[in-house]
Write a structure and sequence with these properties.
Layout: H1 2-26, H2 32-60
């Protein structure tokens, strides 16, 4: 389970970077500070969702 968690975190990080690169290519004016904030916010959102789901599954008794 721990390996799956680490894989999810790393893959979501790279997906977020790819998304920001695509936004940079589409934008007329790119703001690098906004992209860094988006990466942090996206990863914080993923981690929060993961922790909530983990608590929910352990409460139900699946994990």
């Amino acid at each position: 389970m721990r390996q799956l968690e680490i894989f999810g975190l790393i893959s979501f990080f790279f997906i977020t970077i790819a998304w920001e690169q695509a936004q940079r290519l589409r934008a007329k004016k790119w703001n690098w500070l906004d992209s860094i904030a988006d990466i942090y916010a996206g990863n914080a959102g993923f981690l929060t969702s993961y922790v909530v789901l983990l608590k929910l599954f352990s409460w139900i008794g699946i994990i």
